[in-house]
């Protein structure tokens, strides 16, 4: 023990005292983690309101929404959206959710806060980079939001910003002038922030693990953040150049993505020879790994939290980690499955289809391991546990529909229909958010020193769980009928019979969204009024639970924990009649 | 709470599956020679994934139902056999699924996209623009006139940018706003776009193909049912995307010839 | 007997617990760990490689997409710039060697001082060469502009400007690092830890190699 208490604190920076240094431009990974979480909350709130507006417009196109006309008089005269404003809001919903929520919340926010603590470090490897990456991301957010307030509003080209629609400028339609410029600049800035963040995560995991924290002893969430940061490093490093080329096409008159002979608004465009497919390749080379950037951290979070509540070790930890790595690896070989009908060489379809289907193997393994871990457990059904179970369910639902879309021959029918919308919302958005919810209920006591309200949490879970199925399951049926996505209205006879389904979805979406207000309220209420949290309220094993709630500035009060166990010691005979052994406690006698 | 979760999950699962199984919302009937393989593939995938879906969800529900609680004195139980059989099962079952689907599916794909159209099939040139489709038939000389983007002028109806003054082949080209084709005859189309990306999607044909600006993309099909079907754009192309459509009119050979004559006479 | 690390962790005043057999897991020495600045540089380098791989494949795809690629002759100045950059790598290597020796020779005052002043000189020379390279690249742009080859003239010139500008941007980051090193060693009379300097060298040499690669591919393709 001598060495433990005598190891000097080597914290790189001392605790700041001024408000700005402490809460705004802080170098502390915990503050930065909370800042990321806050940014994601703001983004998700905007994104959710946008989804409400979109859903209302689809099902009840004649409704007047007064505050909309205040935001954009031309986009929503009398509070009724124009088709172009619908697409603007659609683009912003997708962009905000994918980049500023699904990338920020499970990965940047929780990763920042807990990765260093879980490996027993005092901070990130590069605290200054860490601060820069948050504020870069924040700047990207501000630039993105600014597009709401420019002349013809946000771009209408979707979050995938396919060229040449996104590249030719204002001649292609409203929002594609300044709005699209802001979009491209914002995403480029976001790439820089994410690259800095990923670099930091990798270096921290490799270099700052405390004594005894072997790779095999890292909690699954740490593994997930680590694997994700490797994916993010390589993915954003490709999106950044793509955005730079797009910006040049837009402002400098180059022709990377714009072919010759295009006539828009009766004007022959002054470009020649560019390749629209090049944008799609670059974008999806980032875009598909991005799906795993969103969902892998949540898988890691769930795998960390689930055993805490089943009170038994997770089944097959090595298979789980192996599957994560396999998914990270495979994620770079499958981008073409977004482009089966894009006009790329049809022979390559099979080439992209097979690895896509193969990805279901590690995904199935992870799902089975999580499911089987529930078997024969002594389950503590607290809110985080419920969200873990919910996660497994929606991950199965979303994964199953992937089978359809991975096959080029079915994609010829289902591509660009609501089936796709259902698929990615389940597997990427809802699954990832369930991980965030589980993580929030689980870690809130550690982050803020207070417990969250259980009753509100349970209400939140049940309404959300049933709600997301009501919202997204019917979308599969719409897709089968051939209901095309990204339509601002369903004007023809063919789709008219589907309007009742759309109305059902809209009502469900409004209610499910309203249920999230319970969550917001719970966050606010518990922050100030929640019962004081003990050090280890859930009887969990990982290192963050061996320090105070919330942890001191240097995480462990001037000392370095020494790790002697893996994270999986549940359902065992621990000290003082407990059924678990902390990672930093003495190993259990055989 | 575990039992409640099991009940809710089971209900969700069964209701979801029921709507699939009952074909409450379903594809319109197929009208193409290649679509049958697609439908077959879909049916096969539905069964395979349906089983996986049911097993996965119900297993989760069952485990949640049978989970003990904090103070019931039950001992926790390890999963029989541990992780290895699960991993093996995942690899084998999903592996077989992947193998079959790829094997069967690539044939359906190949019939649409990897097989060249037969010689003598009806050639149609398709131009997509914000927010309409135009279809061009070669006319009696069976030759398409050259395309000149700078001559495109929607106001005078020159959607393709033809130059009949200097180009003999262009003079008898027929341009229509509907895709009119004879039944049971193969149609070989060339898709190109005037401005941004669009897509050609006819649900009943089970065919979807993007228009990529700058590229001429081939697509062929044979319609087997006389009737009028919707062609819709599925690639986000701008504010009028939702309303960008045309009709595919499948006619008897005689009706088609008559239509052609009427068009040429205009 | 149980040892409670929790307790020890939180209670500084706690009496030293009896030493127990912990299976050799607690060592008294800090494990040898890779230095974080070097890890960081290597991770950063892999991201930069990825970025330029994306640019390169974009160039290959774009060149193959349409037959509008116009070849042009690269300004001869680029050869001079290349030599300047290579020289800067060499001078940085010398600087790093000198400064690394400062710490080791701490006892031999005279020699240590000499090493320090020499090292600093070489660092400044490197900085000068780096700036010279960037200026040289800018002049190469001016030469192309004078020939009427602008960013939007042709895909070949577009890619030339993009490649050189992106490389210069990354090199400016390296120059920032150099200035930071000069200030750091200046402040501490050369006794600062040299790990950061080693990482700096790695990055700078990589910038060198990256430029050689870019120059080569530009020569072949343009």
What is the compact description of this entry?
Chain A has helices spanning 2-6, 19-24, 29-59, 66-71, 83-118, 127-146, 178-207, 220-251, 276-310, 317-330, 347-374, 383-405, 408-414, 418-448, 454-481, 499-529; strands spanning 263-264, 267-268.
Chart the SSEs and their pairings.
The complex is a heterotrimer of chains A (590), B (266) and C (222).
Chain A lengths: L1 H5 L12 H6 L4 H31 L6 H6 L11 H36 L8 H20 L31 H30 L12 H32 L11 E2 L2 E2 L7 H35 L6 H14 L16 H28 L8 H23 L2 H7 L3 H31 L5 H28 L17 H31 L61
Antiparallel strand pairs in A: 1-2
Helix pairs in contact in A: 3-5, 3-6, 3-16, 5-7, 5-8, 5-9, 5-14, 6-7, 7-8, 8-9, 8-10, 9-11, 9-12, 9-14, 10-11, 11-12, 12-14, 12-15, 14-15, 15-16
Chain B lengths: L1 H20 L13 H32 L16 H32 L7 E8 L2 E6 L30 H4 L2 E3 L2 E4 L3 E8 L4 E5 L4 E5 L5 E6 L4 E6 L12 E7 L1 H13 L1
Parallel strand pairs in B: 1-5, 4-10
Antiparallel strand pairs in B: 1-2, 2-3, 5-8, 6-7, 9-10
Helix pairs in contact in B: 1-2, 2-3
Chain C lengths: L4 H6 L25 H30 L11 H28 L4 H38 L8 H33 L7 H27 L1
Could you explain how this protein is built, in words?
The complex is a heterotrimer of chains A (590), B (266) and C (222). A two-stranded antiparallel sheet of chain A has the order 1-2. Chain A is globular. Chain A is mostly helical and 590 residues long. In chain A, strand 1 and strand 2 (267-268) form a beta hairpin. Chain A has helices spanning 2-6, 19-24, 29-59, 66-71, 83-118, 127-146, 178-207, 220-251, 276-310, 317-330, 347-374, 383-405, 408-414, 418-448, 454-481, 499-529, and strands spanning 263-264, 267-268. By secondary structure, chain B is of the alpha+beta class. In chain B, strand 6 (198-202) and strand 7 form a beta hairpin. Helices cover 38% and strands 22% of the residues of chain B. Chain B has five helices and ten strands, in the order H-H-H-E-E-H-E-E-E-E-E-E-E-E-H. In chain B, helix 1 (2-21) runs antiparallel to helix 2 and helix 2 packs antiparallel against helix 3. In chain B, the strands form three sheets. Chain B has a five-stranded mixed β-sheet. Chain B has a three-stranded mixed β-sheet with strand order 4-10-9. Chain C has 222 residues and is mainly α. Chain C has helices spanning 5-10, 36-65, 77-104, 109-146, 155-187, 195-221. In chain C, helix 3 (77-104) packs antiparallel against helix 4. The radius of gyration of chain C is 25 Å and the shape is elongated. The termini of chain C are far apart. Chains in contact: A-B, A-C. At the A-B interface, helix 5, strand 1, helix 9, helix 11 and helix 12 of A face helix 1, helix 2, helix 3 and strand 7 of B.
């Amino acid at each position: 023990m001598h060495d433990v208490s005598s190891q000097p604190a080597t914290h790189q920076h001392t605790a700041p005292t001024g408000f700005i240094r402490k809460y705004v431009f802080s170098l502390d990974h915990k503050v930065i983690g909370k800042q990321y979480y806050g940014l994601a909350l703001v983004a998700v709130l905007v994104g959710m309101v946008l989804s409400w507006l979109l859903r209302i417009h689809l099902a009840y196109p004649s409704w007047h929404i007064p505050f909309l006309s205040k935001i954009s008089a031309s986009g929503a005269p009398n509070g009724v959206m124009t088709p172009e404003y619908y697409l603007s809001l659609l683009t912003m919903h997708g962009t905000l959710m994918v980049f500023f929520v699904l990338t920020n919340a499970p990965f940047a926010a929780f990763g920042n806060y807990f990765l260093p603590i879980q490996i027993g470090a005092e901070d990130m490897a590069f605290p200054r980079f860490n601060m820069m990456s948050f504020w870069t991301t924040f700047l990207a957010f501000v630039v993105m939001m600014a597009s709401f307030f420019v002349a013809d509003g946000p771009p209408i080209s979707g979050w995938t910003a396919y060229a040449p629609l996104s590249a030719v400028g204002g001649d292609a339609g409203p929002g594609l002038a300044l709005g699209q410029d802001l979009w491209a600049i914002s995403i480029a800035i976001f790439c820089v922030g994410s690259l800095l963040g990923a670099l930091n995560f990798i270096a921290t995991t490799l270099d700052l693990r405390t004594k005894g924290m072997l790779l095999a002893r890292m909690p699954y969430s740490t593994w997930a953040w680590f694997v994700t940061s490797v994916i993010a490093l390589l993915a954003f490093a490709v999106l950044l150049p793509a955005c730079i080329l797009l910006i040049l096409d837009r402002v400098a008159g180059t022709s990377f993505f714009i072919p010759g002979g295009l006539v828009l608004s009766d004007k022959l465009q002054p470009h020649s020879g560019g390749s629209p497919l090049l944008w799609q390749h670059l974008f999806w080379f980032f875009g598909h790994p991005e799906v795993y950037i969103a969902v892998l951290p949540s898988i890691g979070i769930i795998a960390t939290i689930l055993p805490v509540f089943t009170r038994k070790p997770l089944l097959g930890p090595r298979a789980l980690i192996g599957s994560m790595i396999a998914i990270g690896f495979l994620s770079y070989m499958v981008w073409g499955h977004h482009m089966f009908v894009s006009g790329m060489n049809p022979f390559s379809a099979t080439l992209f289809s097979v690895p896509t289907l193969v990805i279901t193997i590690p995904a199935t393994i992870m799902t089975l391991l999580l499911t089987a871990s529930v078997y024969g457990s002594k389950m503590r059904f607290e809110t985080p546990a419920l969200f873990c179970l919910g996660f497994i369910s929606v991950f199965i639902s979303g994964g199953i529909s992937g089978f359809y879309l991975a096959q080029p021959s079915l994609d010829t029918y289902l591509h660009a229909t609501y089936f796709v919308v259902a698929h990615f919302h389940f597997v990427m958005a809802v699954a990832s958010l369930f991980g965030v919810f589980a993580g929030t209920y689980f870690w809130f006591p550690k982050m803020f020193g207070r417990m969250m309200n259980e009753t509100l949490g349970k209400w939140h879970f049940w309404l959300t769980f049933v709600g997301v199925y009501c919202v997204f399951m019917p979308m599969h049926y719409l897709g089968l009928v051939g209901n095309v996505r990204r339509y601002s209205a369903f004007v023809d006879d063919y789709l008219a019979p589907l309007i009742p389904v759309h109305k059902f979805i809209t009502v469900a979406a409004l209610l499910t969204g309203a249920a999230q207000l319970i969550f917001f309220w719970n966050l606010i209420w518990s922050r100030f009024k929640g019962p004081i949290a003990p050090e280890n309220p859930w009887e969990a094993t990982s290192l963050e639970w061996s320090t105070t709630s919330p942890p001191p500035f240097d995480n462990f009060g001037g000392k370095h924990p020494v790790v002697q166990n893996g994270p999986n010691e549940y359902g065992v005979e621990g000290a003082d009649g407990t059924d678990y052994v902390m990672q930093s406690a003495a190993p259990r006698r055989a | 709470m575990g039992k409640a979760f099991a009940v809710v999950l089971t209900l969700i699962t069964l209701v979801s599956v029921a709507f699939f199984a009952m074909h409450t919302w379903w594809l319109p009937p197929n009208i193409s020679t290649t679509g049958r393989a697609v439908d077959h593939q879909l049916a096969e995938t539905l069964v395979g994934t349906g089983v996986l879906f049911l097993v996965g969800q119900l297993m989760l529900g069952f485990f949640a139902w049978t989970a003990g609680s904090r103070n019931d004195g039950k001992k926790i139980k390890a999963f029989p056999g541990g992780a290895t059989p699960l991993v093996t099962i995942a690899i084998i079952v999903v592996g077989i699924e992947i193998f079959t689907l790829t094997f069967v599916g690539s044939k359906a794909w190949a019939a649409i996209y990897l097989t060249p159209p037969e010689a003598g099939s009806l050639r149609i040139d398709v131009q997509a623009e914000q927010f309409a489709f135009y279809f061009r038939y070669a006319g009696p000389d069976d030759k398409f006139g050259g395309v000149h983007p700078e001559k495109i002028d929607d106001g005078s109806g020159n959607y393709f940018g033809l130059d009949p003054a200097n180009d003999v082949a262009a003079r008898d080209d027929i341009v229509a706003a509907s895709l009119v084709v004879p039944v049971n005859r193969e149609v070989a189309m060339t898709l190109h776009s005037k401005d941004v990306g669009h897509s050609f999607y006819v649900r009943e044909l089970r065919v979807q193909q993007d228009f990529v600006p700058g590229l001429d993309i081939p697509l062929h099909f044979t319609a087997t049912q006389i009737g009028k079907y919707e062609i819709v754009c599925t690639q986000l192309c701008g504010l009028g995307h939702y309303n960008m459509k045309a009709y595919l009119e499948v006619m008897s050979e005689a009706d088609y010839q008559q239509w052609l004559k009427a068009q040429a006479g205009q | 007997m149980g040892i409670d690390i929790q307790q020890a962790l939180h209670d500084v005043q706690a009496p030293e617990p009896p030493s127990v057999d912990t299976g050799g897991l607690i060592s008294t020495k800090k494990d040898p760990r890779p230095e974080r600045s070097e890890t960081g540089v290597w991770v950063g380098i892999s991201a930069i490689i990825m970025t330029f791989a994306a640019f390169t494949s974009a160039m290959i795809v774009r060149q193959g997409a349409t037959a509008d690629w116009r070849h042009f002759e690269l300004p001869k100045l680029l050869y001079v710039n290349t030599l300047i950059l290579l020289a800067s790598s060499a001078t940085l290597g010398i600087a790093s060697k000198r400064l690394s020796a400062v710490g080791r020779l701490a006892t031999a005052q005279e020699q240590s001082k000499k090493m320090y002043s020499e090292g600093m000189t070489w660092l400044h020379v490197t900085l000068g060469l780096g700036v010279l390279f960037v200026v040289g690249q800018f002049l190469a742009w001016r030469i192309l502009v004078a020939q009427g080859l602008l960013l939007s003239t042709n895909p070949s010139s577009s890619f030339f400007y993009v490649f050189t500008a992106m490389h210069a941007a990354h090199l400016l980051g390296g120059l920032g690092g150099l200035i930071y090193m000069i200030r750091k060693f200046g402040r501490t009379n050369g006794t600062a830890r040299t790990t950061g300097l080693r990482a700096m060298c790695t990055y700078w040499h990589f910038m060198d190699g990256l430029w050689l690669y870019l120059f080569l591919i530009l020569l072949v393709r343009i």
